[in-house]
Amino acid sequence: MITLYGIKACDTCRRARKALETRGVPFQVHDLREDGLSAALLEHLLEQVPVMTLLNKRSTTWRQLDEADKAELDANSARELMLANPTLIKRPLLDTGEDIRVGYRDGDYDDVAG
């Protein structure tokens, strides 16, 4: 099953969801804020996406972090920060079962089959 990871309040996530619905692609939604982020799910994502690619340094959550947390950032601390603050993950993430796509722009899901 295809899974779209994101948050409901995110405009890009809504556009990605609409693109899948328009194409008739069956998928499930995992809201990172409401459904949470487990260590197992994070590791699943990191199997295909580098940790620094997954970390959203443009998010409001990132800007609100302590400067010390940002300054001492490495792969392990980034994992810990994302587990503690799931909204630090770039979104949307589309897990097709074959790959994980980070972000969305119009046309990105045109090749996704249901």
Number of helices: 6
List low-pLDDT spans. none
What is the annotated CATH architecture? 3-Layer(aba) Sandwich
Helix content: 25-40%
Query: What's the main sheet like?
Result: 4 strands, mixed
DSSP E strands, number: 4
Q: What is the CATH C-level name?
A: Alpha Beta
**What fraction of residues sit in β-strands?**
5-15%
Description:
- The N and C termini lie close together (9 Å).
- By secondary structure, this protein is an alpha+beta fold.
- The protein has one domain: Glutaredoxin (3-Layer(aba) Sandwich).
- Strand 3 and strand 4 form a beta hairpin.
- The relative contact order is 0.25.
- It is elongated, with a radius of gyration of 14 Å.
- It has six helices and four strands.
- Strands 2-1-3-4 form a four-stranded mixed beta sheet, with helices on one face.
